[in-house]
């Protein structure tokens, strides 16, 4: 027994020593590669978002889009790589990632954060590092409207517009006058539903709240049954929307169902199955023509049609690459370039206002209809007009 | 606050609450039986349930059952899925016992260690379905919500006259199924020879051993029985909600454990009472306020009940249930 303990001590000592040595090694190589300011054009661009987890299908296509833009770029003297950082969309996991990116001078730009929560948690870290961010999909209003930071830009309009767009679709396109509004009582769904409710005014018949992780929606269903709405709006994500919509249809309620961009992605159709037929998803993501060059190139490289925010991801990368072409060789120059950037993008004509937002007259949404598990663009809705 | 909604729809909310509570109760049996015999909370039990829901999906996929099949296919698919879920869940429970608990028991580990290995098993199972299987088989595995075809389509079977309450086939199946399984288990533990062994070990393991009861076999038996009940719950759950997910066991497991404590952990009938009570409380409270506070209602009720009855509503152990 004593002998075996000694053996273990020896093993443990060796392991610790090995770790220490390898740690030294890491520090050495790290020190060698972090020289960005020596005039040549070797840069990395970070993409931060939920690359795994329940909501990954809303993020991965946009990062693939960015990769495509990079692959198609003729960089001249520049060598640029895209590095993917998986946060699972979790602010707690995003914070160390942001610290790492901000601390490594070879990163000249950040694509993301993909979700609002992680962006909220990390934007001051990036601000302190002075590294420009271009988000392809973070839509929470407060990111730019309360305490804006200079480094943050986004290619999608913020949620206040989305609520208006959904309300407008409900009244103008679906002809609804008694809408039942449900949310998931968290940072994305609740304000979105609030905005829809506010815009609908007396065209909303009742409001209910659910929670994240819920699967039995019986209390909500019985409220819907007695309110007899002519349309149902849900602010939340796929994981809860799928069982909710199934139970709505199981109860024999046929009213049209509409959700925000939290439901956008191939996983919605997969999760909801036949009950999701005809459900509408509102999204600021521009539809991509099936036979466009972008769609063909994307399919060739990644083996599938461009999904959620693929065009926005492409555009985000393009902004940074244009900056490098323009001669930006450090974060400050790049930030200045992005702030004043204007140009034609795949998703829209790109420009950023003083808060880093899409200018109001560019704001546009598309209603997608779930047909046989695929989200098909139905109609464009302009909340500003 | 909308008390009118609660009162005017009381019949409907009661039916919803019993449906929800039946599933809690079936899962709670697994916690309560293991606790009764071993004085151990098996935290991996939530994943025993999760594996059952995947077995249902697997069965439907293998035999090609989908929504809109004929009656014969629906019955065959449901029965096969039930057997598959019971087998998968019981197998998982037994595997957890063999891997995480038995080796520790043999070495006389302190009780706290069992909790940690149980939680560890739970995480391993979650990650197997969330990550590992996806690497080998791709979809539908992964960290996403998965659709299970509604082979048994929800239809209104009859309407209770007078109060005009529509009752659907799935609800009948869930409520009747849960109650039948409960009664069968209760009879098994209280009437059969093996059940007597279970009660004996629950009362006094050492004396039971002296009287010739094989303690290891009793422990295996309670894991298998608890697992099989979780399998039944898994089928009923998928019939009602038509989905599964890698982490679906977490909330159900938490609620079922709450139900077990509420009813008196270690007590089979307590699990039934606790489950139904919890389901009703959640649905009633959600009708008055809304569902975003469901967990608050559930745990406030738990705290209040435990303040007055620290051993739960029925408050007896498995051994004392009817010795």
UniProtKB/TrEMBL annotation, chain A:
Protein origin, superkingdom: Bacteria
Extent of the signal sequence: 1-22
Alphabetically ordered keywords of this record: Signal
Residue span, Leucine-binding protein domain: 44-356
Gene3D superfamilies linked: 3.40.50.2300
PROSITE patterns: PROKAR_LIPOPROTEIN
Database matches in InterPro entries: Leu-bd, Peripla_BP_I
PANTHER family attached to this UniProt entry: AMINO ACID BINDING PROTEIN, LEU/ILE/VAL-BINDING ABC TRANSPORTER SUBUNIT
Similarity-based family: Belongs to the leucine-binding protein family.
Protein name according to UniProt: Branched-chain amino acid ABC transporter substrate-binding protein
Organism of origin: Nocardioides hwasunensis
UniProtKB/TrEMBL annotation, chain B:
InterPro entries: ABC_transp_permease, BCAA_transport_permease
Keyword annotations from UniProtKB, A to Z: Amino-acid transport, Cell inner membrane, Cell membrane, Membrane, Transmembrane, Transmembrane helix, Transport
Membrane topology type: Multi-pass membrane protein
Compartment(s) of residence: Cell membrane
Transmembrane segments annotated in the record for this chain: 23-41, 48-67, 73-96, 108-130, 172-189, 218-240, 246-265, 295-315
Broad class of where this protein is predominantly found: membrane
Keyword set includes Manganese: no
UniProt family annotation: Belongs to the binding-protein-dependent transport system permease family. LivHM subfamily.
Entry protein name: Branched-chain amino acid ABC transporter permease
